[in-house]
Amino acid sequence: MLALMIDGVVSKKQDWIAMTTAVAAGSSKLHFRETVCRGQSCGQASWVSGVTFKGCPQKGLSGSSWVSKVLQIQRRNFRQSSINDNWKPLRAVSASYLKDGSVKYFDFAVIGSGVAGLRYALEVAKHGSVAVITKAEPHESNTNYAQGGVSAVLCPLDSVESHMRDTIIAGAYLCDEETVRVVCTEGPDRIRELIAMGASFDHGEDGNLHLAREGGHSHHRIVHAADMTGREIERALLEAVVNDPNIFMFEHHFAIDLLTSQDGSDTVCHGVDTLNTETQEVVRFIAKVILLASGGAGHIYPTTTNPLVATGDGIAMAHRAQAVISNMEFVQFHPTALADEGLPITPAKTRENAFLITEAVRGDGGILYNLSMERFMPLYDERAELAPRDVVARSIDDQLKKRNEKYVLLDISHKPKEKILSHFPNIAAECLKYGLDITRQPIPVVPAAHYMCGGVRAGLQGETNVRGLYVAGEVACTGLHGANRLASNSLLEALVFARRAVQPSIDHMSNSTLDLSASNWWAEPVVPTSLGSNIMNDVLSGTRKVRKELQSIMWKYVGIVRSTRRLKTAEQRIAELEAKWEQYLFQQGWEPTMVGLEACEMRNLFCCAKLVVSSALARHESRGLHYTIDFPHLVESKRLPTVIFPCSPMNGTWSSRQLHNQHIH
């Protein structure tokens, strides 16, 4: 699938990001100074003067304003047959059956069970039936692994303006000012709602919430539950979801592809096909509204803090469904993941995901040393260990390369033992398993892929350019993070946008109808039982090898420090690897409509990896998380988001197109 990468000129406006584009009067043609097609099936860059896209930004609009215009959802009925007047939302009713499974009808379908998906589900459940579709167990999400906390202005000495300023500085001035203001303003209320729902956060001796400080923050504003904040939020939300009679949880249902149709020039989302990975049955969900809250794509890299489920499924599905994608070059590498090689007792087996050492350790006074016990962060930044993550990660990367070492040391042992154990009990317990006492010894750490700042482009209410499809959480690119995420802003963003997506979703649901014949509009995905166990074992084995090879390419060529030569090498090698893998699959008898967990994850990993590389090649400057030795400086004229507009779904590889991109109604 072709991808159009936009990078152009923007004027500075009171140090805030403002995005302006030139649009011909009465035309939907965009004219950018620099528009490069560098895509999924493009061999070389193709320079063009514009791109046709319905509802494009109008001249002079600020960032979130033009996004809202571009992504505005028209509140009108689907052009479908009306449903039987006697139909009412039912609890997980199987209305009809596909060959490989069942069809289920809901008012709302939520893909993902992290903080964004669950918070949204609890609100929309007051207005209709809700399916929460989750890839593994409900708690297995990035939310559950979020240690540090949630940032919010809850101290009288703090201010929304200060939180905004910290966010925008960390985001290298690529943040959307309106989005930042909305999130920082509404954040405190979202925290209070969690507390009212039963989430328990740490309090100080004065009885008030204990507010921590992390890198990039000018004030103490991090609400936390020791070093397991995400787990506590997830616990409270899941408990509320379980007790809600209108919410139905579908565990071990892997989302394969969104079900879309064309209504004139609009793309409309009607549901999602899933694979029940326990029964190997395909289950089709038809819904009036879909919220995509499926998390990030950390596993495009070999070392990541993300759980195994984070394979970019939502971003890839949305891209195949013609959604606008933005800022994929900004991959945050957490500077301090536990380096197993530096532990007194090496773990017996390789971890599925890296163990995170929270930002709060540095916020609490942790100091970084190289293996000669030389403190190095003051050499790189006056903020030392409290510099934003991209600065710290690059500094560690530089130390490791210069000294040819495999990890650095993070030391918090100079703090009182009781304080360390009360603030970081989970980290202390994990390290102690391997013979390391963090109250007396430094922690070996190394950078690891952590958070995607880019994703599916969202307006201020979580809307996308696909009618009926909303996004929240890490899968979304709202404009909050810009070129780098400020610590502990991710859970905040998920909470705020999950809540903001509720009212437009209810409005859309109220003005929509479900057609019981809709399940027959698309071809059926097929579980490849006909191939036999021997062939399937070969396919699985081959796919796992390809996955590791893709991850290796991304780490080597698209890591913390980049270059044009390395990015182009990655682009070429990924294309060759993908073509080789697809050829192998189809030679084994695999059909384009066949689905299996590891094969479908692989196609999503390929899709996301290509989006990251294409976006990185399009940005000719170093900003935030994207650092390239060929363009090592910030360039004011390049201070624009990178945008990938949808193009023809008929072209491209298996990873780049829907299994059924034309509905058969």
Structure characterization notes:
- The chain has 665 residues and is α+β, with helices and mostly antiparallel strands.
- Among the domains are: 103-149 and 226-331 and 451-520, FAD/NAD(P)-binding domain, CATH 3.50.50; 335-448, Alpha-Beta Complex (Flavocytochrome C3, Chain A, domain 1); 533-640, Methane Monooxygenase Hydroxylase, Chain G, domain 1.
- The protein has 17 helices and 25 strands.
- Strands 7, 8, 9, 13, 14, 15, 16 and 23 form an 8-stranded mixed β-sheet that branches. A 7-stranded mixed β-sheet has the order 5-4-1-25-17-22-24, with helices on one face.
- A hairpin with a 5-residue loop joins strand 2 (22-23) and strand 3.
- The chain starts with a strand and ends in a 20-residue tail after the last strand.
- Residues 1-101 have low confidence and may be disordered.
- It is found in: Plastid, Chloroplast.
- Its EC number is 1.4.3.16.
- Residues 547-633 form the Fumarate reductase/succinate dehydrogenase flavoprotein-like C-terminal domain.
- Pathway: Cofactor biosynthesis; NAD(+) biosynthesis; iminoaspartate from L-aspartate (oxidase route): step 1/1.
- Catalyzes the oxidation of L-aspartate to iminoaspartate.
At CATH level 3, the topology of the domain at 103-149 and 226-331 and 451-520 is: FAD/NAD(P)-binding domain
Number of helices: 17
CATH architecture of the domain at 103-149 and 226-331 and 451-520: 3-Layer(bba) Sandwich
* CATH C-level category of the domain at 103-149 and 226-331 and 451-520: Alpha Beta
Spatial extent as radius of gyration: 24 Å
What would you call the shape? globular
The name of the CATH superfamily of the domain at 103-149 and 226-331 and 451-520 reads FAD/NAD(P)-binding domain
Mean pLDDT: 84
Strand content: 15-25%
Distance between the termini: 24 Å
* Helix content range: 25-40%
